[in-house]
Amino acid sequence: MAIVGQPVFAGVYLTGDFDSLRRHAVGADVVTSIGYLQAIVAIIVWVRLRQAWPFLATMAVVEAETVQYFAGLDGALWLHIPLGVMTVAALVVQFIAVWRRPLQRSTRAQGEGLDA
Questions:
Q1: Which residues cross the membrane (predicted)?
Q2: Mean residue pLDDT across the chain
Q3: pTM of the model
Q4: What's the number of domains the chain is made of?
Q5: Domain of 100, in residue numbers
């Protein structure tokens, strides 16, 4: 959960450690890249397990991350900071949802003989 480090880097930057802004920028690249990889995995889950909700939830988070990324580049902190808080919260909730109830093949997919 690389996204959890982002508020830390931003907070350290706001206390006067200006090198943390570079760490925050690198972290943004890492988090965004992981989000796009997660979208690919969510597509595979959708196709293989016939579960659409992980894809839909992932795309909502990836869209928020992308908007937040560009808001940060533009210095629009009025959008960047609250969207960052919401994105971290959404990813934590998504992680807990998958952890507590692992994804399983839907009964419809099992009935169609898609046990690949």
A1: 25-46, 77-99
A2: 89
A3: 0.80
A4: 1
A5: 2-111
